[in-house]
Structure formats: structure tokens, C-alpha cells
Amino acid sequence: MPNSMALDIKSFETIIPSRFLSFTIPNPALPTHLLRVAVLDNPIQLNESPQVAALFVPQNREPDWIFSTESGHLQLLLSSPGISRLILIGSNPISGSDSSPLTYHKRDNAQYVKSLENSVKPLFFALSPKVSVQDGIFDVPILDYEDNLICSVVLERCVGVFVCEMLVEDIEIESDSELREFRRRLRFKRMPNLVQTEIRIVPQKVFELDRVKIGGEVKFRPDTKVLVHSYLIPMVASLSLIGSCIEDRFRKGLKPKALCLGVGGGALLSFLRTELGFEVFGVEMDEEVLRVARQYFGLEDCEIHVSVGDAIEYVEKLAGRDRVLVSGEDNGDFYLNHANGFGAKFDVIMVDLDSCDARNGVIAPPLEFVKKHILSAARSVLSDFGIFVMNVIPPTRLFYDTLIHEFQEIFHELYEIDVGNGENFVLIAKVSPVASPLVNVRIVFFRN
């Protein structure tokens, strides 16, 4: 809502499902800043007396899409059971007062929040439904936003043709060990609460740890030897199902082949190539994402063949033609050819594709992938012992059950892994002799 428009306080007396309003007022704690106030009503009409809650945006994380977009605000609201209205309070610099990059430090945040709490209590009263205060007893609980960030700084914001706005950020996270843990993340605005890619980073030069800080003079480099995204670990671990066959490839002087549908920052592709010795092929829809992956996530240091295009169409073409032209790296174009002795058959296909809906959140894979003919096409380009591995974030139980059914119709063995983070599942389908009995195994994956 523009600042020039007068607010009608009476408009806040009732809950209107999905209503979103934002405005700015002077910041009593920082004269060079304004307070951005955002109010969102729950899209679901709750039967009980409406409960209002407030959340102070961590200082210097105000531009974060989790806090600055309506979709991020909605996910915060939906993750707070029983809340009918969520008020976000964040500090924005007055235009022209400060153009330096924002660096977040958790240690500075508690004092900042304390300095604001008392001064904004009358505002909470004014923004609450009439029924919430009619008994004369009024209290708005202050929610804590908890994550493992110690500090963070944005390295670049850019726009892709398909993924739209995205950013790269360096962070330090809390660690269970005495060693400090630094990460680099790729995030998309259309999925503000999701980390698209996360890798470990280490200082380019040796420094004493107390001299190293995010946003300082120390330069970091990607460490592609370690996977830190929780669901990638069981995806790679699935290769143990065909370990003896992979070893046989190496003994014959051949590299096993992996096809990765969805590249993102390229953490999975880099690990397969540098640590496991695979010949890796990737398909990514957005060329700007690949530019970011090469510049910030170490993808350019690996011999990985990447095609820009639609992953589903790529699989269909690969299944239906004797050879497929794939956009090559600097060494020009290359072909996958059935006549080359190894053929266009892959030992593993790994799918890490997603889509996003403002109401349902992240869905993986996209609905378009949950079709029998797509899975059949993928099976047709796998070797006789190959496996098909997919990251799944199901929006509903029906979605997940449908996906399981489609897998069982096409593949002979199916393994389900619950990653244990309350979000991701990994499905592993194996191409097996028809004479073998049908296998469906469910595994729960626990992380320390």
C-alpha cells in the first residue's frame, strides 16, 4: 500500500481471508530507516476466536523474500498453527541513506528487537480484530523466527528467463563441532522458503578462523567434495544398489553414465563427476541458472555436458530417436549415439525438478512428470541394470500415492526413502529382469 494513502484502522477490525496489506511508518529505533509493516490474514477461515501474532524480521534480512514477499509471508503464517493474522515488522533504509550491502549477524538481532518491542505495542493493538480486544485483555504473542544462520550476505541478484528472480548468498551456519561451517546458497524468489542449491565453501587461502567472516575480505571457493543438502545424500547412496555393475564398467575402462534432469547450482552433478568418476549429462531449462552455477558453484571446473532445454521433452526425444544433439561445452557439440558401443543408455537418471504454487508451496516433481509415458521413456534409456532416482516433495498424500502407482506400473523394483526432514522423499526404481518378483521397500533415512 503506498505511503500516501491513509489507512482506515476500522478495516482491521475483521479478518478477511487472504487479505494482504503493507505500509511504512517512522522507525523509532533507527532514524535513517522506516518500519515496513505487513499484515496478512489466514486464507483459511478459523472457527475459533481470531488469534493475532507478530514477528520482527531479523535485522538486515528485510530484503529476504521470506519476509518481503506475500508468498513468503503466507508460508510463515501457515507454519504457525491457529494464527488468523500475522503481522511482520521490518526495518527499511530511507532511500539514499545507505547503499552498502546488508550483512546479517544473529548476535546483533536480540538487542534490536528489544529496542522496538515496547514502541510498537500500540500498533499491534490497532491492527488487531475488534473481537480480540473486546474483553479488555489484550496480548499479541511475538513469534521467534529460528533458523541456523549466524550471518549472511548476498553476492548477486539476477533474473532468469524461466526461474525469474534469484540470488546467490554466502552464509555461516551453526555447527555441532568446533569447526565453523560456511555455505553458499542459490534461491529463487518464486520459492522464497526453499533453498534451491546449497554447497560448502572454504576460504581460498589459509586464515586463522577468528579472522574469517562472511561479507569480509576473505574470499571463498566451492568445496564440491561434500554434499550438504539432506535429500542428495540418499539419492547418491542409491548407487549402492548397482555398485557391482558400476565397478564392472570401470574395470572395462568405461565410465558409468549419469543423466541429471534439473541442474540448479550443479552440486549433484559436480559430486558425481569429481568424486565418483561418472560421465555426467545434465538438462537445465534456464541458461542464466547455468551461468550462476559456473560462476559461483564450481560447475565450470567439472567435465559435465549440459543441455539447455525442457527436461521432459529431452527424455522423450532421447527415447524416440537414435541420436540426440546436446549443446556442448567449449569443445563444441557432441552426440549420444546408440552405435558408439556404450550407446545412449544411462546407468542412472536422477530427477531434481520442482514447481511452485503460491497456495500449495513447492511440488517435486512437477505434475507433468507424473505420467506413465514419461516414466516409460525414462526407463527405455536406462541400461539393463540401471536405476531411476527422483526427489519428491508431495503436496498431498494423493499426489504421492499416484506417483508410487505410476512407478510400480513401469519399473520392477521400487524403494522409498523418507529423508526424515518432514519434506523430502526419494524414490529409487530399478530396471530388473521380468522373472524377478515385484519389490517395493520403504526406508526411513535418519540424519544425525
TrEMBL record:
Gene Ontology MF terms in the entry: methyltransferase activity
GO biological process, one term: methylation
Listed Gene3D superfamilies: Vaccinia Virus protein VP39 (3.40.50.150)
Keywords: Methyltransferase, Polyamine biosynthesis, Transferase
Entry annotated with the keyword Methyltransferase: yes
Record carries keyword Transferase: yes
Organism superkingdom: Eukaryota
InterPro entries: SAM-dependent_MTases_sf
Protein name, per record: SAM-DEPENDENT METHYLTRANSFERASE SUPERFAMILY PROTEIN
Organism: Salix viminalis (Common osier)
